Amino acid sequence: MSDALPFKAMEIVTAIGRGFSPKKALMLLEEDNVLHIIDLHEFVGKSTDQMERIKGRIIGENGKARTNMENLTNTSISVYGKTVSIIGSTNKLKNVIDAISSLSSGSMHGSVYSKLEAVRRREKLDKLQLWENQDVF
């Protein structure tokens, strides 16, 4: 881990620059957590109106969509400037990236949440089955 500390420090500074609070940026010190940045130009090109629309879809009314995605994926999301930044474990990142891509491409919020809930249920069942096969005594 000590070899990776300079890289983690750079990631923490980048996360703060992308709109995360220092407290949330320090989550990057946890071993499996990484920072992923999505450039929204991939979805809208140069149109500022489309950019605002996509950001609004990702944030949701009063931050509800962003909060729902954070809770369902156990990640932190920051929409800042022309990017969406995510801090989370590597195994959770794919799910939230897919959700943000779906919302940016016009999918309904309900269907995105349903997919995230299904993934979460599947992970819980996998964890339970792992424990069922263990001899405790």
UniProtKB/TrEMBL annotation:
The keyword Repressor does not apply. Gene3D superfamilies: K Homology domain, type 1. Keywords: RNA-binding. Coiled coil: none annotated. SUPFAM superfamilies: Eukaryotic type KH-domain (KH-domain type I) (SSF54791). It holds the Pfam family KH_PNO1_2nd. Residues 35-120 form the PNO1 second type I KH domain. GO terms for molecular function: RNA binding. The keyword RNA-binding applies. Transmembrane segments: none annotated. This is PNO1 second type I KH domain-containing protein. It comes from marine metagenome.
